[in-house]
Amino acid sequence: MPFAFDLVPVAGFTGLMAAAAFEDFRRLVIPNAVVAGLCVLWPLHLATGPGFTLAGNLNAVGCAMAVFLCGAVLFSRGLIGGGDVKLLAAATLWAGPGATPTLLVVTAVLGGVLTLVLLSSATVRAAFSWARAAALKSVPVPYGVAIAAAAVIVTVPPNLP
Asked: Dihedral, CA atoms, 50, 152, 144, 21, nearest 10 degrees?
Protein backbone atom coordinates (compact mmCIF):
# COMPACT_ATOMS: atom_id res chain seq x y z
CA MET A 1 0.00 0.00 0.00
CA PRO A 2 1.55 3.33 -1.04
CA PHE A 3 2.16 6.09 1.47
CA ALA A 4 -0.56 8.75 1.41
CA PHE A 5 1.41 12.01 1.24
CA ASP A 6 -1.81 14.01 1.34
CA LEU A 7 -2.34 12.94 4.96
CA VAL A 8 0.91 14.53 6.17
CA PRO A 9 -0.40 18.13 6.09
CA VAL A 10 -3.73 16.95 7.55
CA ALA A 11 -1.86 15.34 10.44
CA GLY A 12 0.13 18.56 10.91
CA PHE A 13 -3.12 20.54 10.86
CA THR A 14 -4.61 18.29 13.55
CA GLY A 15 -1.49 18.53 15.70
CA LEU A 16 -1.31 22.31 15.43
CA MET A 17 -5.00 22.66 16.27
CA ALA A 18 -4.46 20.44 19.32
CA ALA A 19 -1.52 22.64 20.35
CA ALA A 20 -3.64 25.78 19.91
CA ALA A 21 -6.44 24.31 22.03
CA PHE A 22 -4.02 23.18 24.75
CA GLU A 23 -2.23 26.52 24.97
CA ASP A 24 -5.47 28.50 24.94
CA PHE A 25 -6.92 26.34 27.71
CA ARG A 26 -3.71 26.54 29.73
CA ARG A 27 -2.73 30.20 29.26
CA LEU A 28 -5.56 31.87 27.31
CA VAL A 29 -3.00 32.52 24.56
CA ILE A 30 -2.83 31.07 21.05
CA PRO A 31 0.81 31.25 19.92
CA ASN A 32 1.43 33.05 16.64
CA ALA A 33 3.77 30.21 15.62
CA VAL A 34 0.83 27.80 15.64
CA VAL A 35 -1.25 30.03 13.35
CA ALA A 36 1.78 30.61 11.11
CA GLY A 37 2.32 26.85 10.94
CA LEU A 38 -1.28 26.33 9.84
CA CYS A 39 -0.84 28.92 7.09
CA VAL A 40 2.47 27.40 5.94
CA LEU A 41 1.00 23.88 5.81
CA TRP A 42 -2.01 24.93 3.75
CA PRO A 43 -0.18 25.21 0.39
CA LEU A 44 1.38 21.79 1.05
CA HIS A 45 -2.12 20.45 1.63
CA LEU A 46 -3.20 21.95 -1.69
CA ALA A 47 -0.19 20.52 -3.52
CA THR A 48 -0.63 16.97 -2.21
CA GLY A 49 -4.41 16.78 -2.03
CA PRO A 50 -6.77 15.95 -4.85
CA GLY A 51 -9.03 18.51 -6.48
CA PHE A 52 -6.67 21.48 -6.78
CA THR A 53 -8.40 24.37 -8.51
CA LEU A 54 -7.15 27.92 -8.57
CA ALA A 55 -10.65 29.40 -8.29
CA GLY A 56 -11.55 27.23 -5.29
CA ASN A 57 -8.35 28.15 -3.50
CA LEU A 58 -8.78 31.85 -4.17
CA ASN A 59 -12.30 31.57 -2.75
CA ALA A 60 -10.83 29.94 0.37
CA VAL A 61 -8.44 32.86 0.76
CA GLY A 62 -11.35 35.27 0.30
CA CYS A 63 -13.41 33.50 2.97
CA ALA A 64 -10.46 33.54 5.37
CA MET A 65 -9.95 37.26 4.75
CA ALA A 66 -13.64 37.98 5.34
CA VAL A 67 -13.60 36.01 8.61
CA PHE A 68 -10.42 37.80 9.66
CA LEU A 69 -11.88 41.25 8.92
CA CYS A 70 -15.12 40.49 10.78
CA GLY A 71 -13.08 39.08 13.66
CA ALA A 72 -10.88 42.19 13.67
CA VAL A 73 -13.98 44.34 14.12
CA LEU A 74 -15.10 42.14 17.03
CA PHE A 75 -11.59 42.29 18.49
CA SER A 76 -11.55 46.10 18.25
CA ARG A 77 -14.72 46.15 20.35
CA GLY A 78 -13.23 43.77 22.94
CA LEU A 79 -15.63 40.92 22.14
CA ILE A 80 -13.09 38.31 21.02
CA GLY A 81 -9.38 37.74 21.45
CA GLY A 82 -6.84 38.42 18.74
CA GLY A 83 -5.51 34.87 18.80
CA ASP A 84 -9.04 33.56 18.36
CA VAL A 85 -9.49 35.76 15.29
CA LYS A 86 -6.25 34.52 13.71
CA LEU A 87 -7.00 30.87 14.53
CA LEU A 88 -10.52 31.08 13.11
CA ALA A 89 -9.21 32.71 9.92
CA ALA A 90 -6.60 29.95 9.52
CA ALA A 91 -9.25 27.30 10.15
CA THR A 92 -11.46 28.95 7.52
CA LEU A 93 -8.59 28.79 5.05
CA TRP A 94 -8.39 25.02 5.56
CA ALA A 95 -12.15 24.49 5.57
CA GLY A 96 -12.65 26.31 2.29
CA PRO A 97 -15.70 28.20 1.08
CA GLY A 98 -18.03 25.19 1.08
CA ALA A 99 -17.42 24.27 4.72
CA THR A 100 -16.98 27.77 6.19
CA PRO A 101 -20.64 28.13 7.27
CA THR A 102 -20.48 24.71 8.94
CA LEU A 103 -17.22 25.66 10.64
CA LEU A 104 -18.73 28.85 12.03
CA VAL A 105 -21.90 27.12 13.29
CA VAL A 106 -19.99 24.23 14.90
CA THR A 107 -17.59 26.73 16.50
CA ALA A 108 -20.51 28.71 17.91
CA VAL A 109 -22.21 25.61 19.32
CA LEU A 110 -19.02 24.24 20.88
CA GLY A 111 -18.13 27.68 22.24
CA GLY A 112 -21.57 27.97 23.81
CA VAL A 113 -21.28 24.55 25.43
CA LEU A 114 -17.79 25.39 26.70
CA THR A 115 -19.07 28.67 28.14
CA LEU A 116 -21.96 26.94 29.91
CA VAL A 117 -19.62 24.34 31.41
CA LEU A 118 -17.18 26.97 32.66
CA LEU A 119 -19.95 29.22 34.02
CA SER A 120 -21.68 26.34 35.79
CA SER A 121 -18.47 25.23 37.48
CA ALA A 122 -17.72 28.84 38.46
CA THR A 123 -21.26 29.16 39.82
CA VAL A 124 -20.76 26.12 42.03
CA ARG A 125 -17.50 27.54 43.37
CA ALA A 126 -19.09 30.97 43.92
CA ALA A 127 -21.95 29.43 45.88
CA PHE A 128 -19.47 28.58 48.61
CA SER A 129 -18.10 32.10 48.79
CA TRP A 130 -20.17 35.27 48.48
CA ALA A 131 -17.02 37.23 47.68
CA ARG A 132 -16.48 35.15 44.56
CA ALA A 133 -19.96 35.78 43.20
CA ALA A 134 -18.76 38.98 41.54
CA ALA A 135 -16.05 36.98 39.78
CA LEU A 136 -18.71 35.25 37.67
CA LYS A 137 -18.91 38.31 35.47
CA SER A 138 -15.35 37.78 34.31
CA VAL A 139 -15.00 34.02 33.77
CA PRO A 140 -12.38 33.63 31.02
CA VAL A 141 -13.45 31.31 28.21
CA PRO A 142 -10.75 29.75 25.99
CA TYR A 143 -12.65 29.91 22.70
CA GLY A 144 -9.58 28.58 20.90
CA VAL A 145 -10.57 25.16 22.25
CA ALA A 146 -13.94 25.41 20.49
CA ILE A 147 -12.39 26.79 17.30
CA ALA A 148 -9.78 24.02 17.15
CA ALA A 149 -12.31 21.27 17.86
CA ALA A 150 -14.71 22.60 15.23
CA ALA A 151 -11.89 22.94 12.69
CA VAL A 152 -10.84 19.33 13.18
CA ILE A 153 -14.45 18.10 13.05
CA VAL A 154 -15.20 19.99 9.83
CA THR A 155 -11.86 19.72 8.01
CA VAL A 156 -10.34 16.30 8.72
CA PRO A 157 -13.08 13.81 7.73
CA PRO A 158 -13.38 14.98 4.08
CA ASN A 159 -9.59 14.54 3.72
CA LEU A 160 -9.53 10.93 4.92
CA PRO A 161 -9.61 8.14 2.33
From this structure: -110
Residues of the chain short of pLDDT 50, as ranges, are none
Q: Is 51 left (phi over 0), alpha (psi -120 to 50) or beta?
A: left
CA-CA distance, 153 to 56, in Å (whole number)?
Answer: 21
Q: For the chain, what is the domain count?
A: 1
Asked if 13 contacts 156 with a C-beta cutoff of 8 angstroms, the reply is: yes
Number of Cβ atoms within 10 Å of the Cβ of 3 = 7
Q: What is the pLDDT of residues 88-121, one digit of tens each?
A: 999 999 999 999 999 999 999 999 999 999 888 7
User: Is the CA virtual torsion 64, 70, 73, 77 positive or negative?
Assistant: negative
Residue 149 lies in a domain: yes
Cα–Cα distance measured from residue 3 to residue 151, given in angstroms and rounded to the nearest whole number: 25
Identity of the amino acid at 131: A
Domain of 127 in residue numbering reads as 7-159
Read off the pTM. 0.90
